[in-house]
Amino acid sequence: MSITIKEVEHVANLARLELSDTEKEQFAGQLNAILKYAEKLNQLDTDGIEPTSHVLPLSNVMREDTVKPSWPIEKVLLNAPEEEDGQFKVPAVLE
């Protein structure tokens, strides 16, 4: 598989880039070099290798939900700049 100048022009157009003829040739060459290097992966023998979604085994590391007692409201509101009716009072954000 190789990238043509026409394909480079198409992608540049989608990205709204204006490229000179020299840049088009340069990008086509660079993209072809990348694809050629990626084709080496097809030479690897992957028989007997299980497909994975991640290279390391992952497991859920979340803790169990447990009910714990809450702090008393008086202690919670000690650091509140303002409080009203046992709640934090904040400036209105809607008119």
TrEMBL record:
GO terms for molecular function: asparaginyl-tRNA synthase (glutamine-hydrolyzing) activity; ATP binding; glutaminyl-tRNA synthase (glutamine-hydrolyzing) activity; transferase activity. Gene3D superfamilies: Glu-tRNAGln amidotransferase C subunit, N-terminal domain. InterPro entries: Asp/Glu-ADT_sf_sub_c, GatC. GO terms for biological process: glutaminyl-tRNAGln biosynthesis via transamidation; regulation of translational fidelity; translation. It holds the Pfam family GatC. Its EC number is 6.3.5.-. Keywords: ATP-binding, Ligase, Nucleotide-binding, Protein biosynthesis, Transferase. It catalyses: L-glutamyl-tRNA(Gln) + L-glutamine + ATP + H2O = L-glutaminyl-tRNA(Gln) + L-glutamate + ADP + phosphate + H(+); L-aspartyl-tRNA(Asn) + L-glutamine + ATP + H2O = L-asparaginyl-tRNA(Asn) + L-glutamate + ADP + phosphate + 2 H(+). Belongs to the GatC family. Heterotrimer of A, B and C subunits. Allows the formation of correctly charged Asn-tRNA(Asn) or Gln-tRNA(Gln) through the transamidation of misacylated Asp-tRNA(Asn) or Glu-tRNA(Gln) in organisms which lack either or both of asparaginyl-tRNA or glutaminyl-tRNA synthetases. The reaction takes place in the presence of glutamine and ATP through an activated phospho-Asp-tRNA(Asn) or phospho-Glu-tRNA(Gln). PANTHER family: GLUTAMYL-TRNA(GLN) AMIDOTRANSFERASE SUBUNIT C, MITOCHONDRIAL (PTHR15004). This is Aspartyl/glutamyl-tRNA(Asn/Gln) amidotransferase subunit C. It comes from Cohnella lupini. The lineage of its organism: Bacteria, Bacillati, Bacillota, Bacilli, Bacillales.
